[in-house]
Amino acid sequence: MWLYFTTVNLSALDLNLLLVFHTVLEEKTVAKAAAKLHVTPPAISNSLSRLRAVIGDPLLVRRGRGLVPTPRAQELAPRVATALRELERAVGDDRTFDPATTRRRFVLACSDNDQIASVPHLAATLASEMPLAQLHIVSIDQLKASDGLAAGIVDAAVVPTAASHADVHAEPLYVDHGVLVLRKGHPIRAPRLSRAQFNSLRYVDTWIVLGRAGVGTKMMDAFLHRHGLVRNVAVIVPGFAAAAMIVATTDLAVGMPMRVAVQLAKHLPLRVAKIPAPAMPIEMQLVWHARTHEDPGAKLFRALVADAFRDKPRR
Q: Domain 10-91 carries which CATH code?
């Protein structure tokens, strides 16, 4: 028994030739295939000649006014038809997304203050709207270290407006305000601190991104400087939860967004004190990469994030 094997170099194969082959098999004649594909009969004949050269088989032979497939063509026909259907699905415009049945994992990057203040609401919303989907929260550290948005690791991120980049889409999310947090029973009992009292305190600072002072720290220092205030930093930690734990058991102070201060004060002996300056606004936004901009699932996920994060906490 003799076995013959032929190898086709796909890089040399024009996929349009397979479409022509498939259409001619369906229509039985070159003229009908040409009409269906909106080309001339000579163009169909030329395509068939090129495909014959690649495959190494006549594929279709004339019988009367029609064409009949060779055994090789009959073998190829169902495979080509299946492949064309799959390609049509892959590149077609069918972008249906069913939130009730999707098991997709959605990845959101945010700092631990948002994880504490808003992610619980997001988890409840997602469980209601997409009950089988999975929510994965990652840190801003991971977002930065992996270039998560561009790399396809992260679907969206919550970051300060001042930290936006030109290569991402952005949507305003909410405006919070920075507050000063002390422990209950702190030696300074006044509800509003004087400038001297503020400057006499030692502070816990939060460096959220890659162990360095980020946008939030720089914004706060610039704001305090404008109002003649300074922070004498004693401890640096990577998140607000750790800062709150330290402040709750020492005479140190910490500045943090109001949202997370409200939540942490429910579980720790903390109080919010007024500072001798206006409240510092903290503008936050939702950002995402162009690769997910038109994706229906990602669009719905971003809408759920926006709803959950814009819900103001009870005070």
A: 1.10.10.10
Answer whether CATH 3.40.190.290 is correct for domain 95-315. Answer: yes
Handedness of CA 146, 152, 156, 159 (dihedral sign): positive
CA distances to 123, 159, 216, 275, 286 from 172, rounded to whole Å, are: 21, 10, 17, 27, 6
According to DSSP, the β-strands at 253-257 and 168-183 are antiparallel
The residue whose two tokens read 């064409």 is 67
Instruction: Answer whether residue 121 shows pLDDT above 70.
Output: yes
Summarised one tens digit per residue, pLDDT across range 222-261 is 899 999 999 999 999 999 999 999 999 999 999 999 999 9
171: tokens are: 């949507």
Q: Rounded CA gap, 116 and 263, in Å?
A: 7
The string of DSSP letters for 158-171 reads: EEEGGG--TTEEEE
Q: What is the pLDDT of residues 46-82, one digit of tens each?
A: 888 888 888 888 888 887 777 888 888 888 888 888 8
pTM for the full predicted model: 0.68
- Token digits of residue 112: 């631990």
Query: What pairs with residue 205 in β-bridges?
Result: 236
Residues of the chain with CATH 1.10.10.10: 10-91
pLDDT tens digits, 94-106: 557 899 999 999 9
Q: Length of the chain in residues, anyone?
A: 315
CA-atom Rg of the chain in angstroms? 32
For CATH 3.40.190.290, the residue range(s) in the chain are 95-315
Q: Please answer whether residues 288 and 168 qualify as being in contact, where contact means their C-beta atoms are separated by less than 8 angstroms.
A: yes
User: Are residues 98 and 131 in contact, defined by beta-carbon separation less than 8 angstroms?
Assistant: no
